[in-house]
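Submission checklist for the structure archive. All mandatory fields must be present; incomplete records are returned to the submitter.

[x] Identifier: Rhamnogalacturonase A/B/Epimerase-like pectate lyase domain-containing protein
[x] Organism: Tricholomella constricta
[x] Residue count: 1275
[x] Sequence attached
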Amino acid sequence: MHLHSLSLVLGIILSAVSFVFGLGTSCTSPLGAGTAAAGDPYWLETIKHQGLAAYNSNPGGYQVFRNVKNFGAKGDGVTDDTAAINAAITAGNRCGGGSCHSSTITPAIVYFPRGTYLVSAPIIAYYYTQLIGDAKAPPTLLAASSFNGIAVIDADPYIPGGGGAQYYTNQNNFNGKLAGSIVINNAKLNNVPTAVGVVGGAVVLAGGTTTISSWGQGNVYTGTNSAARFTQGSIHAANKPSVLLDSSGKIFGKTHPQYAAYAVSQFVSVKDNGAKGDGRTDDTLALKAIFSKFAGCKIIFFDAGTYIVSSTITIPAGTQIVGEAWSVIAGSGSAFKDQASPQVVVKVGDTNSQGLVEITDMLFTTVGPAAGAIVVEWNVKQPAGQNGGAGMWDTHIRLGGAAGTNLEASQCPSSGSGGFTNCFAAFLALHLTPASTAYLEGAWVWLADHDLDGDGSSQISLYSGRGILSESAGPVWMIGTAEHHVLYQYSLVNARNHYMGLIQTESPYYQPNPAPPAPFTVNSAFKDPTFSVFRNVKDFGAKGDGITDDTEAINLAISSGGRCGGGSSACNSSTITPALVYFPKGVYLISTPIIAYYYTQLVGDAKFPPTLLASANFEGLAVIDANPYIPGGGGAQFYTATTNFFRSVRNFVIDVRRVPAERSQGTGLHWQVAQATSLVNLVFEMSAAPGTAHQGIWMENGSGGYMGDLVFNGGKFGMWVGNQQYVITTLDAPSIDILHRFTVRNVTFNNVDTAVLNHWNWGWSFQGVMINNCKVGFDLLQGVSAVAIVDAVVRDTPVFIRSAAASRASLSGSLALSNILLKDVPTAVGDANGASALPGGAHVVIESWGQGNVYSGTDPTGEFKQGPIAAAHKPSVLLDSAGRIFGKKHPQYEDYSVREFVSVKDHGARGDGSTDDTRAIQTMFNKFAGRKIIFFNAGTYIVTSTITLPPGTRMVGEAWSVIAGKGNAFADQENPQVVIRVGEKHSRGVVEITDMIFSTVGPAPGAIVVEWNIREPNGHQGAAGMWNTHIRLGGAAGTELELANCPLGATDTEPCMAAFLALHLTHGSSAYLEGTWVWLADHILDGQGSSQISIYSGRGILSESEGPVWMLVTEHHVLYQYRLVHAKNHYMGLIQTESPYWQPSPAAPEPFSLDSAYKDPMFSETDTFSWALSIELSKDIIVFGAGLYSFFQNYSQACLDARNCQPQIIDIDSESVVHIYSLSTVASAFQVSVDGVGIVEESDNVNGFASTVTVWSSSGKSRHGGDQVHAEIGI
């Protein structure tokens, strides 16, 4: 408490009142000094005290104001008043005595009238206490000659016998690296010999009678120069605008107003005028009336309490407010819940208003959740010539952590299990608008990180979007603290004339999980700093000259912005910090791994792919590491391998040839990833020296993904891989010389010791592999369950496939080969002992060959084969001109100029996750389809009705831009509506979609996320397709299908309906879907990234197309993952599914109802699980690799041991013509059913963790006698 002379206080107060004008109230008689005589008591002593502690267990009986004389103190300078004073402080079971860390429900003002109080032991200042003396005649606390204790007033006593423990928790400062930083500014010395010295007498800066303008000791930085300059001398002196200075040229300061010269008659109590302050009653109308009536006429006294307001309160110019022990105004209710439409709780002056405003001893806050609350909007400008005429003293914005806020440990524990929705404290704490001025002294703008009640230490997870935003032209004086807000603590935009000292901040303890701006969205109206998705590595200092070590600059480009990585246990995944890290052409020297963070695309120049060149002294696991091992972590890694989603690397040459050949550090890529990941257009250059240890890709485990258009030159291993499931394809395209000296057509291995070492898997599919002059093509170790290879050419290689052990009469690893050409390959299939299961030769064609159990039609008896197997009829529409399965490169438009692209954000779309972008997006497609390539800048684009993509559309996302359907249009499963319609029915033309995500904001039980009607033009295979584009439902920030709304096992399914149908390929369509994942989330991707959730999508992929169709992966939908009805000419490889974890509770089709219009399969009382694959009345369906998994029953994995989590997983009617190669299932009692009857039993095909069938085929009823098998081996 500052104690000043009466004359000084009176002078300031009288000066202030002379400038009261422009009152925005009904006041007609401006406030005067009153008639308080010099001998009258200070107003605080005589005003009626009606304050209460709103959330105290006995609010009516608890006394906030205490006069020490009422507790026996005499103040006569003779009587020992220690016990009486301490009794005044402690009365009412308050927080102190060493047993309570903190409490907001026992506030107190302890008042000392004028006098002299003899003190013989410390006055113990309890928590949440104001000790206030008479401001007119400040009392004296006189230590007795026998005084015993640390201090006359002790705010944090040491507990006797407590071993150094104290009453309260003390936050200690951390040590820095410097010996001490000193800044001296405008210091006038008068006969001071030494200005700065050291112990021992050495002089650092001489003194005398002088003025030190600006001097410093420590590290000095200037502008963008990152190099520190240690200085011990003159430093740059800031320009101090005159508006910030007093008449003597010093920084202006204004004493805390105490109104000592005013009579009590000049004060008005809010409680005497209808306000309750009980923390429950809505006091909005009462407070508005009080401000309207008394601002400028009276000093408004807020009796102690918590005043709830449900709409904006405006404090007019002319207002003087005094609180009692930090009286609270709290915004509560629906007005403050929507961050898309933020509303002000306390508005200080209307926009552009001017006048006196003084606010002392108050707290402004919210009752949560309040995601849309702007707690204080400060508009008022001080009167002309009246510095500091608009300000706050000892007034704070405190968000959460206190009783009554609903933002405490019970609702929002530090684990984050409270979710985001219920734990929003504010949109913005304090906004200084452009025309305002402000004097803020001792202000604390705090988002609570722990409870202030209870044990006073429990950490909590709350979310306040922004701390202090100033757009003021000044003058502004800020002396205080802002802590724990999400986007920023202080943000100054177009601001001028600010003095800030001392400011102090703390970042939120939970970041980067989630990382900013989550769980808020960026709002440009409030000048939010933007998160940069696109990063050019050269903007971060990379040179690309092949000489400079660019490792640090590249990793900075990847990691900047508080992204999800670094090995922090707090972040296993995040969808809110995407990044596209771009490498211009050049050679980038790398000495340690490039760490590829979660949700990152590393993209090189597609015209001139850059080289990542490992230095000769390279140290680390690989040039690019997608999941580093944490040093000293006992095998722990940055991310969980099986949920390491959303990665892409494309257009690079990765060259490790400078690394000594014998060192395994010569590895190009550590790629331990899962779904929605891709490697495209990469060349690996490795040493071909004898004994080389180099390898291109090392993948020890993971769960899925896509690779295409890769070349491996040299090395011990091209690919050393182990994974649950993976698909690798080559893409047939015209020869385009874009990789410097390489022509790219196939996934090619040249001069590698072993092209592919497959360490373990449940299922791998290789399509279009070229192996030239290697020692071994495929080395399949004991842990390999199933491998399928289609369209391979092998030249000058002794062994095409080598397995760890011979398989002669029973299943020991499944192998399926289709359309293989061998040239000068002595052994086609052999084992490690040299035995041959299939000989090779100078020229051998393997049309269809397999090893493993083979089934046909409804015959439940499998036959082990090691020889020719059923060759599927491959319709010509699925093949390229060479007879191989067709593939098309990921379009990158490298031959197009930037003029051929148009940005959706340049044409009105916002992509901010809240604005309805429907009209803007549809206008874009209508205007530019077939004319421009439409670029979707990174963001989430909300649409509230169907968007139609016309023929001719080419669209490109940026780090998986999102289009999400939201609202009533998608709310009725009885009337499902399309979110994204690709072409009208029976339309024909080019559609190319790359790097996008289609989704919903829940609940959306009537959403058909993508309806695919478009058909490729004649003669243009694959012209209608999607690449690296996914349908992702729930689990991600902004979907409202997250942990807070849909926790594991939630019984209310309505809020958790994500979609009616994910993808519908209609009758006349064709589709090329590469690297596409159709996923209903089983866990959250933000927060800690692992908590399971219960959400529901009715159907995965429904295809009624007659083809051609090429497609991949879908998971967790209720009725089915794949459903083919009247479909033809489909190539599906590798398909992978997971059944919903909650089934059979509820049992399929619940919580959806069957809809015959969408060809739903029927379910009986015993059919309670989703079908992974359901086929009816379809023909020429080729599945080349399938991993169909059932891991749970109602979230329990007890069923895995018995391998019967569900009874059936595939159902194919007897009319359909289907070939399934390399089928792996987990925990389904029957692997294949026909017409709903189980045929192939899982127990007959156990092959490690999975059960494997090499081939199952059906010719349909029209072809009696079973399949015709034709296999030709030509030499």
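[x] Structure attached
Curator remark: The first strand starts at residue 65 and ends at 67. The chain has a mean pLDDT of 88.
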